[in-house]
Amino acid sequence: MKLGLVIDLDVCVGCHGCAVSCKQWNTSGMTGALTDYNPYGQDPSGVWFNRIRSYEVGDYPNNKTINFPMSCMHCEQADCVDVCPTGASYKRVEDGIVLVDQDKCMGCNYCSWACPYGARELDRSTGTMKKCTLCLDRIYDERLEEVDRQPSCVITCPAHARHFGDFDDPDSNVSKLVRERGGYQLMPELGYSPTNRYLPPRVTRLIPTEDVSKKSLISSVKEWVNKMVER
Ligand code: SF4
Ligand code: SF4
């Protein structure tokens, strides 16, 4: 098996619901608490497995915001694993999930330097490295209904922008989505062969902002009628 995520950039609205639900679920999960530093101070920060970056593409007035969620890609050629001096970082043979053994990690940061996707987070309070586990403790929990055996981010996403499945199975939902929508790997030229894929935003007719602000004939007529008719 090769488990991973497909993220649909066409429908992600950048609401951060996936990031928050991930933090909530995994704070009580196998890696332990995901720390917040100075949470009520002027400069709060913390450990997150999932971060949403937003980019503006195109030039005004034909510009568009693309929200880009990023977490561990569970790469096939995971250099983060190869550079780890303690063997704390490892890739599971049975499903391809990349994990960190919290008991072995010494927080040297080598793995985060080796990761080109910024997927690793050093937890300063424990001195250990943390990262997305694909919610290992959900997806194999047979006490849950089958529909709930998915990563927390996938279940939570209100836009249904996230999909989870087995990329080794050509009939899985993720394999079909990648085939049908031209799903792509992020920065394949680096040779890490990430498992996660992104579905590109569909090409739509962009409406220049100036045109949107112009009133339509109907709204101008309605405005005129409202002015003329006493209520
Ligand atoms: S995204 Fe980074 S942390 Fe995750 S497997 Fe790839 S190199 Fe390792
Ligand atoms: S920080 Fe931990 S997991 Fe990363 S390379 Fe060092 S020992 Fe290995």
Percentage of helical residues? 10-25%
Q: Strand count, sense and closure of the main sheet?
A: 3 strands, mixed
Detail the poorly predicted runs: none
Order of helices and strands: EHEEEEHEEHEEHHEHEHH
Q: Which ligands, by name, code or SMILES, are bound?
A: iron/sulfur cluster
Q: How far from one another are the termini? A: 68 Å
Number of helices: 8
Descriptive overview:
This protein has 231 residues and is α+β, with helices and mostly antiparallel strands. The protein is 24% helix and 19% strand. The protein contains 8 helices and 11 strands. The protein has helices at residues 17-27, 79-82, 110-114, 136-139, 152-156, 173-181, 209-213, 217-228; strands at 3-8, 36-37, 45-46, 51-57, 64-70, 89-91, 98-100, 121-123, 128-130, 162-166, 197-199. A hairpin with a 6-residue loop joins strand 4 (51-57) and strand 5. The termini are far apart. Bound molecules: iron/sulfur cluster (2 copies). One iron/sulfur cluster is lined by residues 83-84, 86, 88-89, 100, 105-111, 129.
